[in-house]
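Rotation project, supervised by the postdoc (A.L.). Task for the rotation student: set up a whole-complex structure prediction and record inputs and outputs verbatim in this book. Inputs entered:
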Amino acid sequence: MDVALVEAARNDVEDGSFEGEPASLAPRRRSASFSKEPLLVRAVLVAVALGFLGLFVVLPVVAVFAQAFAKGTPAYFAALSDPDALSAIRLTLIVAFLSVSLNLFFGLAAAWAITKFRFPGKTLLITLIDLPFSVSPVVAGLIFVLLFGLQGLAGPWLSAHGIKIIFALPGIVLATLFVTFPFVARELIPLMQEQGTAEEEAAISLGASGLATFFRVTLPNIKWALLYGVLLCNARAMGEFGAVSVVSGHIRGETNTMPLHIEILYNEYQFSAAFAVASLLGLLALVTLVLKTALERKLERHS
Amino acid sequence: MNIDIQKVSRRYGSFMALRDVSLAIESGELLALLGPSGSGKTTLLRIIAGLDSPDKGEIYFGGTDALKLDVKKRHVGFVFQHYALFRHMTVFENIAFGLRVRPRKERKSEGEIKKRVDQLLEFVQIGWLADRYPSQLSGGQRQRVALARALAIEPNVLLLDEPFGALDAKVRKSLRRWLRALHEELHVTSILVTHDQEEALEVANRVVVMGGGRIEQVGTPDQIYDEPANSFVFDFIGDSIKLPVTVESGAVWLGTQRLAANGHLASGAADLFVRPHDLSFGEPSAAPLQGAVRSIRRVGSANFADVALELREGTITVEAAVPAESALRAGDRVGVTPRRYRIFDRPAGEMKSLGALRG
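Outputs recorded:
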């Protein structure tokens, strides 16, 4: 009886789109019911899609793992436990941790500013957030070399004070930050726009401070989208090649991240070692995929 | 708590949302701010709550300068248009929110909070919904939660922004009566914003009619309906028919007939306003206006006739209420007499004269 009541109430809500239900959900719901295409058309479409996916996604991933184990399991683990490989893994984790934490903060701040306030230059800020998507990562790396390199703008001052940015950890983190900046903000802005400011206003009118409003009202409402953004940001941060390649200097055991290490091994014809390290990134991709699917379900249920 | 609003103005870009609005709200009254969209009623409500601030003017809560207090210090209970319930909290937690976020030394114990929330749940008659989430509630139930949440902080003043706007007609009617009863029990100063005149006239002790960022009239529901202060209020409240009249040397001419004269009217064009049920029908020769009945319709319990009136300015079709037993038929020629009417000057919309032709 109770369950039936809840269901009835839910249906009520779903029928009445005027009751503040987000309109953006409508197409998602509708997409479940496809039009009635002839069977042949559907079969061909599905076959094409699956074939394409198999050829360009599944096959390469399988190939990576096959190559990684081509010389046997001991060789695989030997490649991974090589000091240079370990240092690359460590550096990648450090860079990912730093850039994801910083982007979490900046992305949240940017999304908050854009969706909860009105200010001049807002449109410009929204456009700028997307900039890293449209700039080649190599160019992004070069920007930092031009700024902080020895011949760069701040180069002389930096070297005079003994601060090393290019060919060192700070440069790698900066380049990764630049490339991954849009992920968190992009994920939050549409959601926060849709949710509006009414709940925050309600919280403040009930006597909550700004901080309490953020932690008790805003954050719980966006936590799944935030996690989703962090996940994508992390995957990109660990896998970034172009921008990092420009600023890293490829110093073995010092400034090589995993993607750079893989490239060096490959260029030195150490194929199975290269693929062994690559398989770790492949594993990361699979884990990301599973978490992403789980989060998408959560997101859909909560919005 | 009484609220004194003095010469408040608010501008959004080039749009004047409020122009020099002054209003005294008495302690314990239930006041309705009524007006079309864009009339400034919601802006005024948000300014009273502290969610918006005026460009000019002052607001006093029982003598203290409210503009110096930020939102959380004003102790206003705000019921939002779409309720703005915290979607990730249960009904119980929604209502408890205002009690939980108090500074540590003012905060009640968990037991006291539970007692108070249970009391409020009982009060708004939704005790059985305590563990539900907002998405599992109907519109009327959400409304009750929003009200209980606002009442939990024992507000100085209760502000309601279009509280019944998103509900269907039946639920709206029953909640209206319930809100009235609730106000009679609590006697907390309450301000209700609505664009629905029926709602304002039924629920409130006093109604403030707003238009274009100004207050057009303040009065009891009866005063607003029976003695509208200007053409805007007459037009906005209830159904109205507007007929052009001419003022010539102190006399008012409607069609061929002279209406009750009033010396205060300036010569020129003016408007006569009359309610559809204040028109009576008779012999064409005996009435100031003549016309032809186009059609007769029944809407529920009332009959309405579309009558094409022949005026000097041309033909105007008006919708008049006719008694159910009337023998009028489509095609009849009739004489039309306004029984009770008001005449307003055109440009300023000021009231110039009122009168009745026969009783």
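Student's summary: Residues 83-116 of chain A form the longest helix (34 residues).
Supervisor addendum: DSSP finds 14 helices and no strands in chain A.
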